[in-house]
Amino acid sequence: MELRAIHERCSGCRACELACALANFREMNPAKSALGIEGRFPAPGDYRIHLCDQCGACAEACPEDAITLEDDAYLIDPELCTGCLTCVDVCPHGVMYVHAGTETPIKCTLCGACAEICPREAIALEGGA
Amino acid sequence: MRITLHFSGGLRAVLAHLPEEPTIHMDGPASLREILVQAGINPLLVVLITVDGKRGEKDQVIDHDARINVVGPMAGG
Amino acid sequence: MLYGYAGTILDVDLTSGQVAKTPLPENLARDYIGGRGFVARLLWERVSPGTAPFDPENLLIIASGPLSGHLVPASGKTHFGTKSPATGGYADSNMGGHFGPALKYAGYDVLLLTGRAPEPSYLFIEDDTVELRSTEGYWGRGALTVEEKLKKELGDEFKTITIGPAGENLVRFACISHDFGRQAGRTGVGAVMGSKNLKAIAVKGTGGLPVFDVDGLYEKGREAYEKVKAKPGFAGWTPEGTAGITDWVNEVGAFPTRNFQTSFFPAYKNINGRAVVEHLKITDKGCFCCPTPCGKYGKTVTNLGSAYVEGPEYESIAILGGDCTLDSVEEVAYANHVCDELGLDTISAGGVSAWAMECFEKGILSEEQVGRKIRFGDLESVVYLLEKMAVREGIGDLLAEGVMRASKELGQGSEDFAIHVKGLEWTGYESRNAPGMMLAYLTADIGAHHNRAWALGHDVAGSAASVHDLISAGGSKGKLAKSRVGGQAKNVIELQHIRPLFDCLGVCRLQYMELGFEVENYEELFFLVTGRKMSWDELLEVSERIWHLTRAFSAREIEEFGRKCDYPPPRFSEEPVPDGPNEGHFLSREELDTLLDEYYAARGWDQTGIPTDETLRRVGLADVADALAPGK
Questions:
Q1: Quick one: how far is CA C522 from the chain centroid?
Q2: pTM surpassing 0.90?
Q3: What is the CATH number of domain C256-425?
Q4: Domain-located, residue B66
């Protein structure tokens, strides 16, 4: 299973950010989402969806082995995480997020809430059982 | 041709006895304008019309079975 | 506990730099809901009677609603309000985008700006941190340019509002800009911001919002998006957005053309929604949490230059297009971009330009006065006027006053075709054969604006020829019968309660108006967010209360306010429409009086157009009744 971004369909609404935070934290707070919508204005005048593609760079870099693959997603074990933020630095897509209200960085769990809510069908959850 | 029409709430607010989703039959190809007239709708009341989900123009000719969504004059502003 | 709201009013005294944070009063939330309701009530309470719009004591209020920032369709709406430099009375303007939600996540429902910063400044807000910073290098720059610079400097997560040179130069119809193409357009809110030496506000918030039933809201919020997507009109409406009604408005002869001389623009197909999509559009750009992004962001290329622009949407098509008779969508978009960068409301600036071009045609303005020849349909003329008015240079100083004041000063009959009500320029619906729409324009609280009560559909339904007449008359080439005058008040009043209610809730009304997304959904979502059970009718009662309150504010602030401020320009009574579907129609003074008589009676106002004591008390405005009582 994986998430795929169809950037040209994105209208910048960020419902995905809200749904992500609701699904993973039960909070109405897009700052706690694991994806980001970037507007590219004034030119070229579109949006980019920054998603985790489960590349595993974070897991490889984690000095505590706190990030491991479960089914198709790399997940952070909060018991092992020390908050060193090395994973945040190495993430090639900038989708490991830091928030003062969470003990570990915020990372995509491949729950699919973003794909489900997107009214533009700009995010697709593909493959899997 | 078999044409299924869906009339918006706004249109039905103005034309009180209009059903929500009637089906009409046209003998041959017809413009959207003609289809509206056949259905008893003055085309001037129609702000937006879509054919099978895509925006249509009133003088566009339809030559196949279609689903037409008709939005009446409450939309706007 | 106020669920749904951030819970705090942020008060910034720009003169001293002092910042105060006070809890959002529960009774304010209860009785006024949010957004426009907060604006109306706080203006009444906090602006001293007689304060001039550019006095430091005038307030600029920015308020979101309880649904703003939540997982509710189109919950990005932010409301602005002040005492208007254009009309001298109640002013508000609603803006899409992302600013209100950002303010809420930072912890604030309302931002109250008073005073005047000692030097050009911008307000920086990041959660608890609120500070005035210098705008060295920004003052004098365009609204879009400054947004770009601020986002580069602070980060894309910061949401900004900015003013352009027009706001800095106190142009009476200067707007506030946001998100590279959204505005709080009307009534001169940008000029008030400029009078406070405030160039911009940048906000970032990382907090969450309290929700009464967060699991229920997540479930029903998701369902709401599914319901909107399932609406038959969903796929068809979004691609063209509001530009999509251009054809229809011309077919029914309501399209502002040539300074409202007439109401049908033969070249309309060059500037309609299809033209926007085919010639300009790059992205369907929308507001926070919106499923039907109405913004059409694209690129235009003209002989004056090229530009990226969000638009043109319908109003800009009507006024920069039809009213100035620019007949290519590229040119309309370019003029739109010029307005956006200068920080000018496209509607008022376009209307002022059209007035100036008619004055020039009639010899009331000379080439020497204007600085060059100007003419309808000429992009160079329009851009020249826009650039002059934004900096009050030459003829621009007169034009920057708006058509009401400019025509009063110029005289020579130019008042007859100064198209405004109360000092606010007319918007995109020519109404000489649309008595309901006319009444809506006459009685809108901020001046000539359509968005309180879009009644045109009822008018057309009343005047459209029968189906059989239409066939014989050759379809849209037919003429419309005269719309009967009388009986419009009830519908206009209902609309004046329904439509502004969305401005209180903090969400967009387009899903309801355009797609038929039912009001029951908002009742349910309101409960899940706030924990308050309010029926739609109960919410409408709040909206009605606000309507009388805004009227009372204008009555308090504008000398001799009342019925005589509710008339349209003489053109609409003295000049029958010369051509098009509504050829020959006009509304006589007697007919206008019929409309107003009925309206005041139905409203519970006296025949001078002032809310009666009884009415004010009935809707819970006893303190307002006391303040307006004779002898006060």
A1: 23
A2: yes
A3: 1.10.569.10
A4: yes
